[in-house]
Amino acid sequence: MSEISTLGEFGLIKHLTEKIELKNPQTKYGVGDDCAVLSYNEDKEVLVTTDLLMEGVHFDLTYITLKHLGYKSAMVNLSDIYAMGGMPKQITVSIALSKKFQIEDMEDFYDGLKLACDAHGVDIVGGDTTSSRTGLAISITAIGETEKGKAIYRNGARETDLICVSGDLGAAYMGFQLLEREKEVYYKQIEAAKTDAERMAISQPDFSGREYLLERQMKPEARRDIVIALREAGIQPTSMIDVSDGLSSELLHICKQSHCGCRIYEERIPIDYQTAVMAEEMNMNLTTAAMNGGEDYELLFTVPIADHEKIENLKDVKLIGHITKESLGCALITRDGSEFELKAQGWNPLK
Amino acid sequence: MSEISTLGEFGLIKHLTEKIELKNPQTKYGVGDDCAVLSYNEDKEVLVTTDLLMEGVHFDLTYITLKHLGYKSAMVNLSDIYAMGGMPKQITVSIALSKKFQIEDMEDFYDGLKLACDAHGVDIVGGDTTSSRTGLAISITAIGETEKGKAIYRNGARETDLICVSGDLGAAYMGFQLLEREKEVYYKQIEAAKTDAERMAISQPDFSGREYLLERQMKPEARRDIVIALREAGIQPTSMIDVSDGLSSELLHICKQSHCGCRIYEERIPIDYQTAVMAEEMNMNLTTAAMNGGEDYELLFTVPIADHEKIENLKDVKLIGHITKESLGCALITRDGSEFELKAQGWNPLK
User: Could you tell me which residues come within 8 angstroms of residue A193 by beta carbon, excluding any fewer than 6 positions away?
Assistant: First the structure.
């Protein structure tokens, strides 16, 4: 392994970025100057989003590899561009590193970043590399475009609109629970082991049959395909958001900003088989996991009721409810017909 | 003081940003959705730059107030936009907070941010607020514009071009040395004090006659005025960079990327009187402080020799040397005529 200080800041940036090839005509100049230089056509709107991820708060390096972390860090930002109905074109990447990291670690991180960017046609155009006195901090800014006037906000939902969600929910959260459980088991075994032989004999957890949950937690996929499918079907959603903090929390954002209420149906919430099995095994409420788990990075959107048939024909999109007038509030209708008021029990990083 | 957890993430962001008024026609939508939405004319290029600032590495809260820190965090990013010859229009602001911070602290930080943004006509359009297990992390992305084809890179300097720098150098570094010295004195007094009365009697350091040094360290000003003056004088620099890591380091960036060498003259390096006095008092080499101190946020640029007269007439810009062919290397000519090869001894955050 190689010490980062042997390269210095500029050397490290150069090492990590020198093989980057720019793909987009909207990118005039990437890494290597005071700014990246971009060029967007007049008929486009430019979308900008940013996220700051802190070790020990947003990720745990005891179970996520740096390559997965690079991939996920990029993906969560690309997801925000798709959530506006846009196409991401560039990202900048800033990282603050503590001494425990080596050049090879950063290569792994960049491999993950590049994998995500290549899959989504995105250029890495700049950033900052510096040191941290404690863990790793990652800040990514994504930039994208959409046709002028076509950005999809959270505030456009109207009464009678249909509420739709892509993919399935709760799996990333159950993946997180699984990893946390296995981490605890592992540490207990380490503690109990008295000899080297005993330590060597500690088995790695067996995740077979749970691969989907781990993938959803460690390698989320931003839904570019859904944005394209909506365009191709001629559907312009009235509102859209990505599911990062949990379905409840995102629905409340849409309803609050659109000044309306909603009803969604428990039986319609899309849940994968592995998610259901894991919730059962862990004795957790499945609907709660799907409603409040978060990190699904699926798209939640509303469409006019006239688009009902078009939505029915869309692959991997499910109609889960409808928008009501504001005075009716926001509620989940359970399988037995009871109404439960939605609450944002999503993850609060400030608590 | 009020606990941040009482507001939660969305509450805190709302509290800090609800009074923000958008100033620029290039800003269509600011804080409050998945992305900010911007609109740039076709005859412009979009500039993007980002910085990640970590407590204990880039700033020390024992002597910088959060208001100053907010101001400085914005300013160092705006400086990168000016360094391309552009005008900043938007910033996004992400902060990760540990538990020691209260709502009022964040209000102070935002007051500083807003002060900087108002002075430079910049909109705060988004960001992220989250928690940190340790200190404060700040990530700012600045976005700006320049006329198409007019962005000033680091790689355009040519043999015989004149090297110019705005303002004066080394003052921010001497301000830093002064603050570090007084911090040490203060801690020694605290340690030595045995009673409350003795602790109460510890005097605050007297900074009179050093105000300029402190201001340069804590409240740097990005040189918008110089970019405007250059445009008005009809000068298009062949290369430009801002002095964040020290004059030597920045000159080497320009020369390396432009494939040329340079000669600069010690006697021409602009230095303020207070900087000189402080260096003398601290027994430090004044030229070294000016060459390698960093954090000046002045603009360093090159112009064709034909612009000599125009440059002479520019207020607050000094001609310090000229560009040579690459084989001659980069050197400082001292007052006695000796040549010293330039070395990037600027601050390396990764060491």
Answer: A199, A201, A202
Q: A329 phi and psi, to 5 degrees?
A: 70, -175
The complex's ipTM?
0.91
Residue from the list B45, B96, B153 with its beta carbon closest to the beta carbon of A137:
B96
d(CA A171, CA A287): 11
Q: Does A235 touch chain B (CB under 8 A)?
A: no
SS3 B80: helix
Does residue A113 contact residue A331 with C-beta atoms inside 8 Å?
no
B86 alpha-carbon distance from chain centroid: 16
Instruction: Say if CB B34 and CB A80 are below 8 A apart.
Output: yes
What span, in angstroms and rounded, lies between the C-alpha atoms of B203 and B195? 15
Residues 6+ away with beta carbon under 8 Å from B2: B102, B103, B104
What does the DSSP 8-state code read for residue B33?
A: S
3-state secondary structure of A156: coil
CA distance B19 to chain A (A): 17
Rounded-to-5 percentages of helix, strand, coil across chain B? 40, 25, 35
Name residues 67-126 of chain B within 8 A of A (Cβ): 80-81, 83-84, 86, 90, 92, 94-97, 125-126
DSSP assignment letter at A205? P
Task: Compute the distance between CA of residue B299 and CA of residue B229 in angstroms, rounded to an integer.
Answer: 12
How many angstroms separate the CA atoms of A116 and B79, rounded? 31
Check A130 against B96: CB less than 8 A apart: no
**DSSP run (H or E) holding B321:** strand B317-325
Q: In this complex, do A81 and B9 lie within 8 Å of one another by their Cβ atoms?
A: no
Residue pair A162/A319 in contact by the 8 Å Cβ criterion: yes
What is the sign, positive or negative, of the torsion defined by CA atoms of A268, A271, A277, A279?
A: negative
| Cross-chain residue pair B54–A94, CB shorter than 8 Å | no
Strand partners for B27: B38
Q: What is the pLDDT along chain A (351 residues), one digit of tens a residue?
A: 678 877 877 788 888 888 888 999 999 999 999 999 999 998 999 999 999 999 999 999 988 999 999 999 999 999 999 999 999 999 999 999 998 999 999 999 999 999 999 999 999 999 888 999 888 999 999 999 999 999 999 999 999 999 999 999 999 999 999 999 998 888 888 888 888 888 888 877 888 889 999 999 999 999 999 999 999 999 999 999 999 999 999 999 999 999 999 999 999 999 999 999 999 999 999 999 999 999 999 999 999 999 999 999 999 999 999 999 999 999 999 999 999 999 876 544 444
Query: Is the Cβ of B56 closer than 8 Å to some Cβ of chain A?
Result: yes
Residues with Cβ within 8 Å of residue B100, at least 6 apart in sequence: none
Which residue type does B46 have? Answer: V
* Closest-CA residue to A127 (of A115, A119, A116, A137): A137
B320 close to B163: Cβ distance less than 8 angstroms: yes
CA B184 to chain A, closest CA, distance in angstroms equals: 20
Nearest CA in chain B to A150: B37
Beta A36-38 vs B44-54: how paired, if at all? Answer: antiparallel
CA distances from A249 to A243, A324, B162 (A): 8, 17, 58
> Structure tokens of B345?
């001894």
In chain A, helix, strand, coil percent, each to 5? 40, 25, 35
Q: Which amino acid is at A163?
A: I
Q: Rounded to an integer, what distance in angstroms lies between the CA atom of residue A343 and that of residue A314?
A: 29
